[in-house]
UniProtKB/TrEMBL annotation:
UniProt family annotation: In the C-terminal section; belongs to the flavodoxin reductase family. In the N-terminal section; belongs to the zinc metallo-hydrolase group 3 family.
Taxonomic lineage of the native organism: Bacteria, Bacillati, Cyanobacteriota, Cyanophyceae, Gomontiellales
Protein name, entry field: Putative flavoprotein
Domain Flavodoxin-like: 283-421
Organism, scientific name: Chamaesiphon minutus (strain ATCC 27169 / PCC 6605)
Protein task: Mediates electron transfer from NADH to oxygen, reducing it to water. This modular protein has 3 redox cofactors, in other organisms the same activity requires 2 or 3 proteins.
């Protein structure tokens, strides 16, 4: 295994008086769904050194020490006048606390929606704020007020802040259900728009700017799907809002700075939002989360649903008007309620949302419930039983997760999202009257495509340390010299580990008559269990699992991956192969129509 590079902070000047500090990790930072492509990430902070100095977005606690060390070498903490927080993230508090202890003259800037969260997270912290000294302040040319306690300035939408030397900052509120307090900052002096989470990607590399933007396409889309697909209406509104700025560069919180592909990426965001709006099935995901655990579960369920082609409207009930909740419940085909248990109950916002659901949603809507709890977990049971009383069809079994989710529980949630979408699709088929003319043509085409057959294979690979396996009948020989194949795989997280050139896999070609393996791999994997535990296996030279009951196997290296709508098409070179049974015949997938397996 290649040793991973240690975390570091890359520093680069990106415009006059403007420096980026990219806190980098080459490993997956968290097990949250948005990091699943395992390409590391960067937490970008920006320093504007004009007459007054402003720092935008110090990183989370994974980087506190290395970031503060680099910042200290670059700028005097005492001269730091503003710390702008584009959104309040409890994870940032560890860094913020240490920063404030070293920078006694700094004022925190955040939005009105952010200040409450800031107060509540800071309330649990004991600060050791140094007393600023008047003589030191005078030496540094800093205005010295008498009240030198923790200073927070809550900005208004469109407010400006003049840092001097032409750096006039203008703030815009860009709220989404996930980040209701989000703030974008435009610097009129440089044309840089500090976009926080927007336009980012979780990729760690040496390129500060996006010269290589074409190679980022999949990562950007994946990032959008995880963070914004369920909030496309709000994102469309944000895009209109920020279009007013004469922006030259997007400076996001993660990944490379967007200079070369700014227009392309803006158009991509517009079209991805439009694609979401056009989907004909939709889910209202109503949740609230005091400490972030239920919100993390919501993200994973959301991902499972959107990857199945169903639109999600995610609503944090704490920050949403009742009319919007009512509107979402009326418009949706299914709804999901997520709630923590606090003092034996769902919080008030969820009780209110449940009231709206019970009085608004007709009985045909598909329902789901989930939530994080600490010891008794009454909230999920209470909501589930109320929904059961009405008789809503269930999209998945109620999900209860004790405190913070693990990687397994998030997988379970994602699988539940996929399941929910399936139930919705089935319910739609039952309801929809058959449109003879249009469906007739579609059926004819589907039946014609169905005559294309493929050999049944199981693709095995390693997702981090975890072996994964997926059935596919879309494997074809693509080249002779070098021997190469193409594999079409569903846009499924299981094989996301084959996203990059150089990744290894084994194609196990199944034998006609061996229904054991076929049945095994047709079932969806159960999260947290070893899929290969009951099978006879051995390891190939490339480290992937070989199913010894297969007819033959190919050891492959991925060279390329192409986006083909609902599938990825992998092009892989065959490095090695072996026939395991000389007399058997290849199992073939014969079907009546293109949408059957
Ligand atoms: C004030 C408070 C009261 C709580 N009461 C309960 C309770 O009655 N039953 C329970 O199972 N968990 C209880 N918990 C634990 C939370 O449900 C648990 O921390 C959960 O992960 C919170 O989810 P969230 O991060 O989505 O807010 C309580 C936690 C707090 C802070």
């Amino acid at each position: 295994m290649t040793p991973t590079k240690p975390r570091d902070v890359q520093i680069a000047q990106i415009a006059p008086n403007t420096t980026v500090l990219r806190s980098r990790t080459w490993e997956r930072l968290k097990f949250e769904i948005e990091y699943a492509r395992q390409k590391g990430t960067t937490a970008n902070s920006y320093l504007i050194e004009a007459d007054s100095i402003a720092l935008i977005d110090p990183p989370g606690e994974s980087f506190t020490d290395i970031f503060l060390e680099e910042l200290g070498q670059h700028a005097y903490y005492q001269r730091l006048k503003y710390i702008i927080l584009s959104h309040i993230n409890p994870n940032r508090i560890a860094t913020l606390k240490r920063l404030l202890e070293a920078a006694p003259y700094a004022t925190i800037i955040c939005s009105k929606a952010g200040v409450n969260t800031l107060r509540s997270v800071l309330a649990n912290q004991s600060f050791d704020l140094p007393s600023p000294r008047e003589d030191e302040a005078n030496d540094l040319g800093i205005e010295f007020g008498t009240n030198q306690t923790l200073k927070v300035h809550v900005v208004r939408d469109e407010e400006t802040l003049d840092l001097g030397n032409g750096h006039v900052l203008q703030f815009r509120f860009v709220p989404t259900p996930r980040h209701p307090d989000a703030l974008c900052t435009f610097d009129r002096g440089t044309g840089i728009l500090y976009t926080d989470k927007l336009f980012g990607s979780h990729v760690c590399d040496d390129a500060v700017f996006d010269e290589h933007w074409k190679t980022l396409a999949d990562d950007r889309k994946y990032y959008f799907d995880c963070l914004y697909a369920a909030q496309s209406t709000q994102v469309e509104a944000i895009l209109t809002k920020i279009a007013e700025f004469p922006t030259r560069i997007y400076a996001p919180a993660h990944g490379s700075i967007v200079r070369h592909s700014r227009s392309v990426l803006t158009l991509d965001y517009q079209s991805w939002c439009e694609q979401q709006q056009k989907k004909d099935l939709s889910v209202a995901l109503l949740y609230t989360s005091a400490y972030g655990n239920t919100a993390t579960l919501a993200r994973a369920i959301e991902k499972g649903i959107t990857q199945s082609g169903v639109k999600v409207r995610s609503i944090d009930c704490e920050f949403t008007e009742l009319e919007e909740i009512t509107d979402a419940v009326q418009a949706c085909d299914g709804f999901i309620i997520g709630s923590p248990t606090l003092a034996g109950h769902p919080p008030t916002q969820i009780q209110t949302a449940l009231g709206i659901v019970l009085s608004t949603a007709n009985q045909t809507k598909v329902a789901g419930v989930f939530g994080s709890y600490g010891w008794s977990g009454e909230a999920v049971d209470l909501i589930a039983s109320k929904l059961q009383d009405v008789g809503y069809p269930q999209g998945f079994e109620p999900i209860r997760v004790k405190f913070a989710p693990t990687e397994e529980t998030l997988e379970q949630c994602e699988a539940a999202g996929v399941e929910f979408a399936k139930v919705l699709n089935k319910a739609k088929k039952v309801r929809a009257p058959r449109q003879i003319s249009v469906d007739g043509q579609t059926d004819r085409t589907g039946r014609a495509i169905g005559r294309v057959t493929g050999s049944l294979c199981v693709i095995t690979a390693n997702n981090g340390n975890k072996p994964v396996g997926l059935m596919s009948s879309r494997v074809s020989q693509a080249g002779f010299s070098p021997p190469a194949i193409t594999i079409a795989v569903a846009k499924d997280r299981e094989l996301e580990c084959l996203a990059n050139p150089g990744e290894k896999c084994v194609v196990n070609i199944l034998k006609e008559g061996n229904t054991n393996l076929q049945r095994h791999f047709l079932k969806p994997p159960t999260p947290g269990t070893d899929r290969f535990a009951d099978l006879e296996t051995t390891l190939a030279d490339n480290g992937c699992i070989v199913l010894t009951e297969a007819l033959s196997y190919l050891e492959c290296t991925v060279k390329n991956r192409m986006d083909c709508g609902d599938r990825w098409l992998l092009y892989a070179v065959v490095d090695n192969g072996k026939v395991l049974e000389l007399t058997g015949v290849t199992a073939i997938d014969r079907r009546q129509a293109s949408n059957q397996y």
